[in-house]
TrEMBL record:
InterPro entries: AB_hydrolase_1, AB_hydrolase_fold, Epox_hydrolase-like. SUPFAM superfamilies: alpha/beta-Hydrolases. It comes from the Eukaryota. Residues 27-46 are annotated as: Disordered. PANTHER family: EPOXIDE HYDROLASE. It catalyses: (24S)-24,25-epoxycucurbitadienol + H2O = (24R)-24,25-dihydroxycucurbitadienol; an epoxide + H2O = an ethanediol. Belongs to the AB hydrolase superfamily. Epoxide hydrolase family. Epoxide hydrolase involved in the biosynthesis of cucurbitacin and mogroside tetracyclic triterpene natural products (e.g. siamenoside I and mogrosides IV, V and VI). Cucurbitacins have cytotoxic properties and exhibit deterrent taste as a defense barrier against herbivores. Mogrosides are nonsugar highly oxygenated compounds used as high-intensity zero-calorie sweeteners; they also possess pharmacological properties such as regulating immunity, lowering blood sugar and lipid levels, protecting the liver, and acting as antioxidants and antitumor agents. This is soluble epoxide hydrolase. Keywords: Hydrolase. The keyword Ion transport does not apply. Residues 34-46 have a biased composition (Basic and acidic residues).
Length: 363
C-alpha cells in the first residue's frame, strides 16, 4: 500500500502506522554549476537570518539559535553536535510558519559547561529547557530530538507532558527504565570494555583519545559513521584515525560544516558532552520513581535502517512488536528510512523536514 512520496505502509496496528521510506543513495558531491552555486549562496543568505542570543536558564547561560514566527519548534541535538545540526530543519520550518529554536545544550558550544558530572542528569538538562520555554513566553512547544536530544525529549514528555504539544523523535527509541540493573553494567557485559559508551565512562580517558586523534578526526568519524554494528573505541587505536588523517566526507557534510563543529569543540572541549554518558547510571538511579511510566504525548518516530541504535539487541522487536506502542500509547507513526545512517536529519534533510512538518501541522 503506497502512502505518499515514496513511503510504503508495511503495517497498521492499533492505529499505529509503520512506514518504510525508500530514499536514493546520494552520489559524491558534484562540482557546483552556476545555478547550483546560486542556490548555495541563497542558502548562505538564509543562514544569516538565524539569530543568536544568550538566555539565562536554571543558573547557567544558554546559547540559542532561532528564526521565524509562529508556533515554537524546539530542536534538541546530540553528541558530538550543536544547534547547527538542525540548520536545514530550522530554515524549512521557519519558511513554513513556525518559530524554530535550537539551543546548544548544557556542556556544548556557547552554552555553559558546569564542571560536576552530577550537573548533567535529566533533571538539570530538562530544567534548563523548561526555563527556556518559559523565557520564550510559551505554554507549550513542539519538540524534535535526535540522539541525546531524543533521550532528553522522551524525559521532557515524562516529566512535563503539559509543556509539549507533540514530539518528533529521531534515531533513539524510548528506553523504559529496567530496575534489574544499571545500564552501563549491562552494556559492558554485552559489548565489552571497548564499546564507546563504556570507554566514555572514566573522566579524562576519552578526552585524551580525542586530543590524540584531533577534533576534526573525531567529528568526521562520528558524523560519517554508517555501520549498523556497535561503535568500538579500542585503547590501542582510539577512533582509528590520527591528526590530519584523510576522511572522505559524504555529499551532505562539507568541510565548512566540520570546521564549525571543530571550532566550537576546540573552544569548549568534549567533557560536557561526554558527561551525558557518564551520568547514565546516575539517571537510572534518580528516575526510579518513573519505572513503568508511559510517555503520553503524540509522537512520531523516525530511524534509519543503518543506524547503530536500530541494531542494538532487542530494539527492532521493541519498536515493531508492540512494546514501543505500550510504553508510548500515543505513538502515531514509525518511519524506517532505508540506506540511511544515524545522523539522519543532516544526511536526508529534505525528507526529515517534510516528516516533521507533516506531523506537527496536524496539531
Amino acid at each position: 500500500m503506497q502512502y505518499s512520496d515514496g513511503l510504503e505502509v508495511v503495517s497498521i496496528q492499533d492505529g499505529l502506522v509503520i512506514i518504510t521510506s525508500t530514499v536514493e543513495t546520494q552520489a559524491k558531491q558534484p562540482q557546483l554549476k552556476s545555478p547550483e552555486r546560486e542556490r548555495e549562496r541563497e542558502r548562505e543568505r538564509e543562514m544569516e537570518g538565524i539569530e543568536h542570543r544568550m538566555v539565562r536558564v536554571n543558573g547557567i547561560n544558554m546559547h540559542i539559535a532561532e528564526i521565524g514566527e509562529g508556533p515554537v519548534v524546539l530542536f534538541l541535538h546530540g553528541f558530538p553536535e550543536l544547534w547547527y545540526s538542525w540548520r536545514h530543519q530550522m530554515l524549512y520550518l521557519s519558511a513554513n510558519g513556525y518559530r524554530a529554536v535550537a539551543p546548544d545544550l548544557r556542556g556544548f558550544g556557547d552554552t555553559d559547561a558546569p564542571a560536576s558530572l552530577s550537573s548533567y542528569t535529566y533533571f538539570q538538562i530538562i530544567g534548563d529547557l523548561i526555563a527556556l520555554i518559559d523565557s520564550l513566553g510559551q505554554d507549550q512547544v513542539f519538540v524534535v530530538g535526535h540522539d541525546w536530544g531524543a533521550m532528553i525529549a522522551w524525559y521532557i514528555c515524562l516529566f512535563r507532558p503539559d509543556r509539549v504539544k507533540a514530539l518528533v523523535n529521531i534515531s533513539v527509541e524510548f528506553k523504559p527504565r529496567h530496575p534489574s540493573g544499571k545500564p552501563v553494567e549491562k552494556l559492558r557485559a554485552f559489548y565489552g570494555d571497548e564499546y564507546y559508551m563504556c570507554r566514555f565512562q572514566e573522566p579524562g580517558e576519552a578526552e585524551d583519545v580525542c586530543a590524540h586523534d584531533g577534533t576534526a578526526t573525531v567529528i568526521k568519524k562520528f558524523l560519517t559513521y554508517r555501520h549498523p554494528g556497535p561503535l568500538m573505541v579500542p585503547k590501542e587505536t582510539g577512533f582509528g584515525g590520527s591528526p590530519g588523517s584523510t576522511i572522505t566526507l559524504p555529499s551532505w557534510l562539507s568541510e565548512e560544516d566540520v570546521n564549525y563543529y571543530v571550532s566550537k569543540f576546540d573552544e569548549k572541549g568534549f567533557t560536557g558532552g561526554l558527561n551525558y554518558y557518564r551520568a547514565v547510571d546516575l539517571n537510572w538511579e534518580l528516575t526510579a520513581p518513573w519505572t513503568g511510566a508511559q510517555v503520553k504525548v503524540p509522537v512520531k518516530f523516525i530511524v534509519g535502517d543503518l543506524d547503530l541504535t536500530y541494531h542494538m539487541p532487542g530494539v527492532k522487536e521493541y519498536i515493531h512488536d508492540g512494546g514501543f506502542k505500550k510504553d508510548v500509547p500515543f505513538l502515531q507513526e514509525v518511519v524506517v528510512m532505508e540506506e540511511v545512517g544515524h545522523f539522519i536529519n543532516q544526511e536526508k534533510p529534505a525528507e526529515i523536514n517534510k516528516h516533521i512538518y507533516d506531523f506537527i501541522q496536524k496539531f
